[in-house]
Structures are given as structure tokens and as C-alpha cells.
Design brief:
single chain, 190 residues, alpha+beta, Alpha-Beta Plaits, 4-stranded antiparallel β-sheet, 14% strand, nucleoside diphosphate kinase activity, NDK-like_dom, Nucleoside diphosphate kinase-like domain-containing protein
């Protein structure tokens, strides 16, 4: 009688990475660094956010003095959004980024991405999620279709065989993680 051993459970964390408008032309270089650092890029997209979308993305920063400049900067051109995955992805990505202020990063973490590609306090070249909750929210914001969860599951061994089956089709069509749009009336609406 053959005894099958259960496959080990490996927790892989996801985080959002943004290549900001002023260094989009360095995407290939940055992608190479990301891959060499042990990350898997689950999904990538290039987009141009409106100032309103930027305001919604950085809602936690609302009311701070730099907020108008931040939304103007982030909406000034296209950016690249990526979902990165690996063990402890959030902390490893933050470590690779360095301090949020590029001027500080140049002094204290000269090999960090923000020290290399950033120019000042505001234009720090790249974004990374601060924690798990922020990561989940930001990934859903940048990838609202939510299909990356199903695709990531289906392409991980030993589930590769599901890619061509009815279950894969059903999961893609009936994805429980697909966001639903809700309309909340504004106070003045009837």
C-alpha cells in the first residue's frame, strides 16, 4: 500500500509595486532587479491615472500639505503597476525600495531603488504597499478585474492540469474575488 504524503503548504505573500511616471522608461531595468530579488511578477499593467483616481488611491494622505502635488505627480503620465509575489513579499519589497524620501535614501541606503531612481521627497520613483491590508486594497484598486487570483492559483503546480478543464473556465467566469460596484448616494441625492 502506497502512502501519499500531503504537499507542503507554502504561504506566498503578494504586494503591489508601482513604477511611477518619471521613471517608466526604466521599467525593464527595474523588472530585472525585481526578478533577480526572488519575486514573481503575477500580473503587470501600464495605465495612466486621472487626478481623481490618484486621490482615491492615496486617500490616507488626504489633507496633508503634499497631497495636491502627489496627485499631480502621479497623474502626470503613465505608470506601471505590478503584483509581486514571494515569501514575505511586503517586507522584502519595502527593504529593496529603501526610505520613502529619496534624499534620505541616498544617504542611508545608497543601494536602494529609491536612492538610485528617486530624485526628491515627492518623486521617489517607486511605490510599495505598507502592510497586508494596504496591499490587498491597493491590488484591488489597480487590478479591479480580480482575475489574477484565479490565474495565479491555476498556474501554480500541481494545478496546471486545471488550465484546460471545465473547472478553470468556471472559476474564471464565476470568480468569487471579482469586485462588485456599489452606488452609495451622496447626501444631496434624492
Amino acid at each position: 500500500m502506497e502512502v501519499s504524503m500531503p504537499l507542503p503548504q507554502i504561504y506566498v505573500e503578494k504586494t503591489l509595486a508601482l513604477i511611477k511616471p518619471d521613471i517608466v522608461d526604466k521599467e525593464e531595468e527595474i523588472r530585472d532587479i525585481i526578478l533577480r530579488s526572488g519575486f514573481t511578477i503575477i500580473q503587470r499593467r501600464k495605465l495612466h491615472l486621472s487626478p481623481e483616481h490618484c486621490s482615491n488611491f492615496y486617500v490616507e494622505q488626504y489633507g496633508k500639505l503634499f497631497f495636491p502635488n502627489l496627485t499631480a505627480y502621479m497623474s502626470s503620465g503613465p505608470l506601471v503597476a505590478m503584483i509581486l509575489a514571494r515569501h514575505n513579499a511586503i517586507s522584502y519589497w519595502k527593504e529593496l525600495l529603501g526610505p520613502p524620501n529619496s534624499l534620505v535614501a541616498k544617504e542611508t541606503h545608497p543601494d536602494s531603488l529609491r536612492a538610485i531612481y528617486g530624485t526628491d521627497e515627492l518623486r521617489n520613483a517607486l511605490h510599495g504597499s505598507n502592510d497586508f491590508a494596504a496591499s490587498e486594497r491597493e491590488i484591488r484598486f489597480m487590478f479591479p478585474e480580480g482575475e489574477f487570483l484565479t490565474r495565479a492559483f491555476l498556474t501554480t503546480p500541481p494545478n496546471r492540469s486545471l488550465l484546460k478543464g471545465w473547472l478553470a473556465d468556471w472559476l474564471l467566469k464565476n470568480n468569487p474575488n471579482k469586485p462588485k460596484l456599489c452606488h452609495f448616494p451622496i447626501a444631496d441625492e434624492p
